[in-house]
């Protein structure tokens, strides 16, 4: 069965056609058909794909810049990025659903998939990846038309209200049949094609534009300068000259002289040879040698091309960047290239490929750049940032905020997210040493009344006073002085509490101690062998 006369047998699309009867402009999705509506509702590709590919293959500047973008762009993997209940990004994780992105086709990897996407986006402004069951296929971008329709499945102009991408038409056998006609194309549903167009075309609805488009003249000028340089070496690698003879020559003599002059002094093999002239001939220089001006003009063109590609010249290894290259400049240029060029491309590629995989309800497709070699040089900066965040978390937790809320505030930089997540506990610097509560101002009547009303606190204070006075008896104060101190503190002693010791005590001394839990008075008897100089 010929390809142009069959229906596509993809399970998902065929099942959709059978079950829903989906059509577009009266044609079933998945069927090969010729579409001709005078351009209404169709966005064909820009017909510059072959030209841009030819420039890439022939111009070293374009090749270097595209290759630099490709190598950096193809380094990531894809993972699911969890979305927390508050909408903040969570952890990266993987599932079996992502296997098709890791092995898109036989012997293919994620890097191969991204490499093709970058090449097609650079040359055509668009990359199309079609899912066919458990494999992916790259569609040549210059053979894809974008269909614009409405919610009813009718083709409408891209400027119509409610216009949206209704599908894609792919011409696997090429657009022209070689007989002046147009080949049939297959209509593909939007849900089975990943459309990657990092630079929108302002003259289209959904079509992208190549970054090469604004610098076509710069590339042409660079090629002319290369040709100029080649001609310089092919023509003796010397300035242009005028040779004047001392006599009139016939046409035959002039032609003979020109042939001999060219044979002996033109071409790179004859460069720097001594010129011998006879018969009064004189050679006069009328041109200029390759000078620094030539190099400067060529470097200016290189700079414009690299700027349009978003690749610093120092990263691509071009003269425009190497002239001012230092180790510090290279690091800054690398960071600019990754942050402002490659990361946005990764994000847009993840958004396009998300069409081809079924994401969990609480996650979205995202890129995993943890293993990108170019980013490993920033490990020290990342470690310093992590340390700063850890210090922030520690400070917030010590201040009494919830650890999880503190970690989220440090990771997102939104410090106001900790509002409402305080534990009620305060720092030790704000807590009193006695009861673990904030220190109250004893001068205030309310504070004094609270202390007096608490029997446990009162008993604890009495015990501390007695202990301090007991340790000072005999060393700093006498027994009588100790009695007076305790009396002033409002503490009544047992009848035989403190005794004035003269020599040896008459009996085992006892000291009343207040139990802070029960507020009962107990007696502590000092063991034998204690210090005889201490009075009880």
Walkthrough of the structure:
- The chain has 536 residues and is of the alpha+beta class.
- Among the domains are: 217-292, no CATH class; 381-425; 445-525, no CATH class.
- Helices cover 39% and strands 14% of the residues.
- The chain is built from 17 helices and 17 strands.
- The chain has helices at 11-20, 49-58, 60-73, 99-102, 110-124, 216-234, 251-265, 292-309, 313-316, 319-322, 327-353, 373-376, 379-398, 403-412, 445-453, 455-472, 479-488; strands at 23-24, 27-28, 32-33, 42-43, 77-83, 89-93, 127-132, 135-139, 144-149, 164-170, 185-188, 193-196, 241-244, 282-285, 363-368, 510-514, 521-525.
- A five-stranded antiparallel sheet has the order 3-11-10-9-4, with no helix packed on it. It has a three-stranded antiparallel sheet with strand order 6-5-15.
- A hairpin with a 6-residue loop joins strand 16 and strand 17 (521-525).
- Helix 3 packs antiparallel against helix 5 and helix 6 (216-234) runs antiparallel to helix 8 (292-309).
- The longest helix has 27 residues, at 327-353.
- The radius of gyration is 44 Å and the shape is elongated.
- It starts with 10 loop residues before the first helix and ends in an 11-residue tail after the last strand.
- What do the pLDDT scores average to? 76
- Relative helix content: 25-40%
Strand order of the largest sheet: 3-11-10-9-4
DSSP strand count: 17
- What kind of oligomer do you see? single chain
Short note summarizing the structure:
Helices cover 39% and strands 14% of the residues. It has 536 residues and is an alpha+beta fold.
């Amino acid at each position: 069965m010929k390809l142009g006369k069959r229906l596509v047998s993809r399970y998902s699309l065929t099942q959709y056609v059978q079950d829903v009867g989906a059509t577009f402009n009266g044609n079933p999705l998945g069927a090969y058909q010729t579409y001709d509506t005078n351009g209404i509702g169709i966005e064909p590709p820009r017909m510059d794909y072959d030209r841009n590919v030819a420039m890439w293959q022939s111009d070293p500047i374009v090749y270097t810049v595209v290759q630099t973008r490709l190598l950096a762009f193809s380094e990531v993997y894809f993972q699911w990025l969890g979305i927390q209940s508050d909408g903040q990004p969570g952890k990266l994780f993987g599932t079996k659903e992502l296997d098709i992105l890791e092995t898109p086709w036989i012997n293919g990897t994620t890097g191969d998939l991204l490499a093709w996407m970058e090449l097609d986006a650079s040359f055509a402004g668009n990359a199309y990846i079609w899912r066919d069951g458990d494999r992916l296929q790259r569609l040549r971008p210059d053979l894809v038309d974008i269909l614009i329709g409405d919610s009813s499945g009718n083709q409408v102009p891209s400027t119509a209200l409610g216009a949206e991408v209704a599908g894609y038409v792919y011409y696997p056998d090429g657009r022209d049949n070689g007989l002046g006609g147009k080949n049939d194309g297959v209509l593909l549903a939007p849900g089975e094609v990943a459309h990657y167009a990092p630079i929108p075309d302002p003259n289209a609805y959904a079509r992208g534009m190549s970054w090469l488009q604004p610098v076509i003249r710069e590339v042409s000028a660079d090629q002319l300068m290369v040709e100029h340089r080649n001609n310089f070496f092919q023509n003796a690698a010397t300035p242009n000259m005028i040779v004047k003879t001392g006599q009139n020559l016939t046409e035959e003599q002039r032609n003979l002289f020109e042939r001999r002059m060219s044979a002996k002094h033109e071409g790179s093999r004859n460069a720097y040879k001594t010129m011998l002239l006879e018969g009064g001939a004189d050679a006069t220089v009328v041109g200029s040698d390759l000078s620094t001006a030539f190099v400067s003009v060529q470097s200016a063109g290189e700079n414009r091309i690299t700027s349009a590609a978003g690749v610093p010249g120092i990263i691509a290894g071009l003269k425009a960047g190497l002239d001012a290259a230092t180790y510090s400049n290279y690091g800054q240029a690398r960071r600019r290239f990754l942050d402002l060029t490659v990361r946005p491309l990764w994000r847009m590629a993840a958004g396009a490929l998300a069409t081809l995989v079924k994401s969990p309800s609480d996650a979205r497709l995202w890129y995993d750049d943890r293993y990108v070699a170019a980013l490993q040089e920033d490990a020290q900066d990342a470690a310093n940032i992590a340390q700063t965040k850890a210090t922030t978390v520690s400070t917030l937790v010590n201040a009494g905020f919830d650890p999880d809320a503190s970690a989220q505030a440090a990771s997102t930089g939104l410090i106001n997210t900790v509002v409402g997540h305080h534990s009620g506990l305060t720092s030790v610097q704000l807590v009193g040493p006695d009861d673990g509560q904030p220190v109250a101002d004893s001068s205030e009547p309310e504070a004094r009344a609270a202390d007096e009303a608490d029997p446990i606190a009162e008993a604890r204070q009495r015990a501390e006073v007695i202990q301090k006075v007991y340790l000072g008896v005999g060393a700093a104060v006498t027994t009588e002085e100790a009695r007076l101190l305790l009396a002033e503190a409002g503490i009544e002693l047992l009848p035989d509490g403190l005794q004035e010791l003269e020599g040896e005590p008459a009996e085992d001394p006892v000291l009343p101690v207040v139990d802070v839990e029960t507020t009962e008075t107990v007696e502590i008897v000092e063991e034998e062998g204690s210090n005889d100089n201490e009075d009880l």
